[in-house]
């Protein structure tokens, strides 16, 4: 007997396809998922970009501060000299390369210019495209590393660089008193032997030579100028940059060259602590340096550095509504046309070990 199986009313039938409505719903759901994923990726990319911008800004600010701190800590280091060099009659020219002027300037280990709108002509001779309203700091010392001038622990005059300015400290030709001399290296060995005549305590060995260092820190209106102008610098988007003009050699003669320290530094202010009672410590509040005379600068024993760094690129949707404390310069508010940049302020106090120690000998 054959049994017939009949489908009961209401039982499910096998699905043989999608209806138009189901197909459209699935497309919409897929598009929503893709849109959500794209939004997530875009947000992550934007966040990563902002983190990178902030990281570069922080790194540039810290590097600029650390570079200056390392230099300023050595201000007034003159090798074996234990007494303060004589104070010059007038404020030294920071851009001079004349040996006599460099030697006279040793009495002023740091020198500053407080937020000039226009640089004095002597400073403008080597400091180019200075950003108005920011400070200029001059640091004078010698290089403590003498290894490049020695062979087997002895001074080697054959390693003298022609055109480089050196300080030599040691016993005079009579072997009686410690003195110093500043001179330019020559390409002729006999000339160097006749020039650098001071000796060590044994009165025989030649005293060591140290490179004369003059560093001038300032904020330039751009990182890479076009010619001598920052108007079209940095591909038409000038980035304020901390730079250093340093004494070196060009064409076998003393010359100043400009070195870029860190991009994005838009403000730089310096405060000074002055010792008025010769105990090696500052007295009273810090000053901005504008009222200091040539007789006051040798009494500076501390320096406080204020740096305001900003991002090199704008941040979308960001508006900087903060004010930034810059020491005696007061609070700084970003310019109205530059509020889309993120910023961070850095400050560091530095004790000038060498001049402050000599004052209590």
Number of H- or I-type helical stretches: 5
What oligomerization state is this entry in? single chain
Q: What's the total number of strands?
A: 14
Molecular shape: elongated
Q: Compute the average pLDDT.
A: 90
- The level of helicity is 10-25%
Structural category is alpha+beta
Reading the helices and strands in chain order gives HHEHEEEEEHEEEEEEEEH
In angstroms, what is the radius of gyration?
32 Å
Major sheet: size, sense and barrel closure? 7 strands, antiparallel
Low-confidence stretches: none
- Straight-line N-to-C gap: 128 Å
Beta-strand residue percentage: 25-35%
Q: Quick summary of this structure?
A:
With 361 residues, this protein is an alpha+beta fold.
List keywords for this structure.
361 residues; 3-stranded antiparallel β-sheet
Characterise the protein shown here.
- This protein has helices spanning 20-72, 99-104, 121-124, 189-195, 353-358; strands at residues 110-113, 136-142, 150-151, 154-155, 165-171, 178-184, 209-220, 241-250, 253-263, 265-274, 300-310, 324-325, 331-332, 343-351.
- The protein has a domain at 50-146 and 208-358.
- Helix content is 21%, strand content 27%.
- By secondary structure, the chain is an alpha+beta fold.
- Strand 12 and strand 13 (331-332) form a beta hairpin.
- Strands 1, 2, 5, 6, 7, 8 and 9 form a seven-stranded antiparallel β-sheet that branches. It has a three-stranded antiparallel β-sheet with strand order 10-11-14. It has a two-stranded antiparallel ribbon with strand order 3-4.
């Amino acid at each position: 007997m054959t049994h017939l199986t009949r489908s009961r009313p209401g039982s499910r039938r096998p699905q043989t396809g999608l209806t138009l409505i189901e197909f459209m719903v699935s497309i919409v759901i897929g598009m929503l998922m893709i849109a959500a994923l794209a939004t997530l990726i875009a947000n992550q990319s934007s966040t990563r970009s902002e983190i990178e911008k902030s990281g570069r800004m922080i790194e540039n600010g810290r590097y600029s501060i650390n570079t200056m701190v390392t230099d300023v800590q050595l201000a007034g280091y003159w090798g074996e000299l234990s007494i303060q060099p004589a104070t010059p009659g007038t404020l030294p020219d920071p851009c001079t390369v004349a040996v006599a002027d460099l030697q006279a300037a040793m009495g002023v280990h740091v020198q500053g210019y407080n937020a000039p709108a226009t640089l004095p002509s002597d400073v403008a001779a080597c400091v180019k495209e200075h950003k108005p309203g920011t400070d200029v700091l001059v640091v004078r010392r010698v290089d403590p590393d003498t290894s490049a001038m020695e062979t087997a622990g002895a001074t080697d005059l054959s390693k003298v660089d022609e055109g480089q300015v050196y300080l030599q400290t040691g016993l005079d030709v009579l072997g009686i008193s410690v003195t110093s001399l500043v001179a330019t290296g020559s390409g002729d060995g006999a000339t160097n032997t006749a020039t650098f005549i001071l000796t060590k305590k044994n009165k025989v060995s030649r005293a060591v030579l140290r490179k004369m260092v003059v560093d001038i820190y300032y904020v330039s209106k751009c990182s890479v100028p076009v010619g001598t102008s920052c108007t079209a610098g940095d591909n038409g988007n000038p980035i304020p940059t901390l730079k250093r003009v340093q004494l070196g050699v060009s064409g076998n003669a003393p010359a100043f060259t400009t070195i870029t320290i860190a991009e994005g530094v838009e403000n730089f202010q310096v405060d000074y602590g002055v010792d008025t009672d010769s105990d090696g410590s500052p007295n009273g509040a810090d000053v901005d340096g504008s009222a200091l005379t040539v007789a006051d600068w040798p009494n500076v024993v501390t320096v406080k550095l204020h740096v305001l760094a900003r991002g090199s690129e704008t941040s979308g949707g960001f508006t900087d509504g903060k004010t930034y404390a810059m020491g005696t310069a007061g609070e700084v508010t970003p310019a109205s046309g530059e509020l889309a940049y993120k910023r961070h302020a850095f400050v560091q106090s530095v004790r000038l070990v060498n001049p402050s120690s000599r004052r209590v000998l």
